[in-house]
């Protein structure tokens, strides 16, 4: 598979880019070089390679939930910038 100038123009149009003729030729060459390099992967024997979704094994790193007592309201309100009727008062975000 190879990239043509028309392919580059099509993608540039989708991205709403204006390219000069020099840029179109440059990108066509660069993209073809990338594809040629990627084709080398097809030469690799991957028959004995198990398909994976990640290269490293994933492990759940979350700790177990432990029930514990909450802070008393009076202590929490000490950190609040403003309070009203035992609740933290914040600026209105809706008009």
From TrEMBL:
<keyword id="KW-0648">Protein biosynthesis</keyword>
<comment type="similarity">
    <text>Belongs to the GatC family.</text>
</comment>
<keyword id="KW-0067">ATP-binding</keyword>
<comment type="subunit">
    <text>Heterotrimer of A, B and C subunits.</text>
</comment>
<dbReference type="InterPro" id="IPR036113">
    <property type="entry name" value="Asp/Glu-ADT_sf_sub_c"/>
</dbReference>
<keyword id="KW-0436">Ligase</keyword>
<comment type="function">
    <text>Allows the formation of correctly charged Asn-tRNA(Asn) or Gln-tRNA(Gln) through the transamidation of misacylated Asp-tRNA(Asn) or Glu-tRNA(Gln) in organisms which lack either or both of asparaginyl-tRNA or glutaminyl-tRNA synthetases. The reaction takes place in the presence of glutamine and ATP through an activated phospho-Asp-tRNA(Asn) or phospho-Glu-tRNA(Gln).</text>
</comment>
<dbReference type="InterPro" id="IPR003837">
    <property type="entry name" value="GatC"/>
</dbReference>
<dbReference type="Pfam" id="PF02686">
    <property type="entry name" value="GatC"/>
</dbReference>
<keyword id="KW-0547">Nucleotide-binding</keyword>
<protein>
    <recommendedName>
        <fullName>Aspartyl/glutamyl-tRNA(Asn/Gln) amidotransferase subunit C</fullName>
        <ecNumber>6.3.5.-</ecNumber>
    </recommendedName>
</protein>
